[in-house]
Specification:
The chain is mainly alpha-helical. The protein has helices at residues 3-6, 24-41, 45-62, 65-81, 85-97, 99-102, 105-121, 125-139, 145-165, 169-183, 188-208, 212-228, 235-247, 251-268, 271-288, 291-360, 365-412, 418-425, 427-436, 442-452, 457-463, 468-481, 490-495. Helix content is 81%, strand content 0%. Helix 7 packs parallel to helix 9.
Length: 499
């Protein structure tokens, strides 16, 4: 999971944030935030935190909302980078409450992006994807174009990473290719850190499938950029190079790259990456029969893993609380909307009653009273209908949740009734899919249904009692039968039938 932390080093440049009128102290705050940004870019974490805290202190003193929002955001980013997820979420929430943040797309973008990374690390994949989809929407509002492109690149990278955690290889490749197409059209001197991460990811991808020559080309590109721009963050590339040497059965070369990664990690202090390297080195020494070294590196890995596990457990509750609060606000907005509708209807009816009464008072008093009663009855009927609709909606939601739970259990037990029940619960998507692809077999429909329900390939393999590789093969065959182009996501395609 260490790659989830890596893109925190890809930071939004200070120029993305709009400027306010500054007095002398607010100018000092902006200068401190600039220094914090530069320190983080150079992987000087202690300095980054120190500058951010100083900026926050002055901003709080003078009531500078822009400075407070950016200071909180800066600290949230840095604490996530250090593995302190609970505190990171606290600072992100403080940033979000600042008036400046509410109206600045760049701040809102980064708040969602860092939260998405944290949720992914906490294994809250659906929530993470939701945050990154919000990022894609917010990024469209960011100006100028080069800043908007930069934000899109960050989101593509994060999307590829989170889809990798749920074993959705099609979506991983789709977002990596979109990111590469975008980045290679932009100014390298500005986006070199994005390119380093992207090229390292491509190197890892190709080394896993045995194309070592192409993998080495991407790793070389990544390291050339780190040397060219004196970029201090190299450990990810070295780890992937070590992994490639393991695939090639070259343990000495693998050990060389893992040690290079550790040297870099002594500077950057990325806990989760250190855990990965210690684990790989322990395995290598185990193969060599060096038990003393195995114990040494295993113990170092266990210490870090214990720290990370504690932090993760402490962070899950506040992470989920954010979503609970978000849902509460959304539901509250719906209730306010319904109440407003009823209130406006009531006002209109009352105005009508008044007009009818005024024009008919002398000659049609009895008729007016009758009409008034009718209008009042209509109002009561309107309110009653709204209440009934709310109750029916609630009942339908409950039935849908129960049906969905039943469907998931049928899938997990590989019950033959799964496909039939799926077609009953999702009749329209099924009809639309079969209309487009009438030649699909029941076996292919069964697989398509599980993909539609967002089951990862590993779970599909477990529930259908086959190898993971077999599921990947079946998915590739299904992709061909659906006539999907290379790089297109089968998950997105199937979900489109429910639009």
């Amino acid at each position: 999971m260490f790659c989830l932390i890596l893109s925190i080093l890809l930071l939004l440049p200070p120029g993305l944030f709009s400027k306010e009128n500054k007095d002398n102290k607010s100018a000092i705050v902006d200068s401190l935030l600039e220094k914090s940004y530069e320190s983080k870019l150079n992987v000087e974490i202690e300095s980054a935190i120190e500058y951010a805290y100083r900026a926050l202190s002055i901003s709080d003193e003078i009531g500078y909302s822009r400075g407070k929002a950016k200071s909180y955001l800066n600290l949230g980013q840095t604490l996530f980078y250090l593995g302190s997820y609970e505190k990171s979420l606290e600072f992100l929430s403080l940033a979000e409450k600042e008036p400046f943040a509410k109206n600045d797309p760049a701040v809102l973008f980064e708040l969602s992006r860092v939260r998405g990374q944290i949720f992914s690390y906490l294994n809250l994949s659906n929530q993470s994807i939701r945050e990154f989809i919000k990022c894609l929407d917010i990024a469209q509002k960011i100006e100028p174009k080069k800043d908007r492109d930069y934000c899109m690149s960050l989101t593509y990278e994060n999307m590829s990473i989170v889809y990798g955690t749920i074993d959705d290889s099609d979506s991983v490749l789709y977002y990596m290719n979109r990111n590469r197409e975008l980045l290679e059209s932009l100014d390298e001197s500005i986006f070199f850190s994005n390119l380093v991460n992207l090229y390292s990811s491509f190197g890892s991808l190709y080394s896993k499938v045995g194309d070592f020559e192409l993998a080495k080309e991407f790793f070389d590109k990544a390291l050339e950029l780190t040397d060219k721009y004196q970029y201090r963050y190299q450990s990810r590339t070295y780890i992937y190079l070590g992994d490639m040497e393991l695939y090639k059965e070259n343990p000495d070369s693998a050990m060389y790259y893992y040690k290079k990664a550790l040297e870099n990690l002594e500077v950057t202090k990325i806990k989760s990456e250190s855990s990965v390297v210690y684990g790989q080195m322990a395995d290598l020494f185990r193969q060599m029969g060096n038990e003393d070294s195995v114990r040494f590196y295993t113990e170092k890995q266990n210490i870090i893993n214990e720290e990370l596990t504690t932090e993760r457990l402490n962070s899950v509750k506040p992470a989920l609380q954010i979503f609970i609060e978000e849902e509460r606000i959304n539901n509250s907005k719906k209730r306010i909307k319904e109440f407003t509708y009823i209130s406006i209807s009531s006002i209109i009816l009352i105005v009508l009653i008044f007009l009818v009464s005024k024009n008919s008072r002398k000659k049609l008093l009895l008729k007016k009273e009758k009409e008034e009663k009718m209008l009042q009855a209509k109002l009561q009927e309107t309110i009653k209908q709204v209440e009934l609709k709310k109750e029916k909606t609630k009942e339908l939601e409950q039935k849908l949740n129960e049906s969905f739970s039943e469907l998931i259990e049928l899938a997990k037990t590989n019950d033959p009734a799964f496909l039939k029940r799926f077609q009953e619960i999702y009749p329209e998507p099924t009809k639309r899919l079969l209309k487009e692809h009438p030649n699909l077999t029941n076996t292919e429909l069964n697989l398509a249904a599980m993909i539609f329900l967002n089951f990862p390939s590993k779970d599909i393999a477990t529930y259908t009692f086959v190898e993971h590789r077999t599921v990947q093969t079946k998915k590739n065959r299904l992709r061909k039968k659906l006539n999907l182009p290379a790089g297109a996501s089968i998950e997105h395609y199937l979900s489109s039938f429910s639009d």
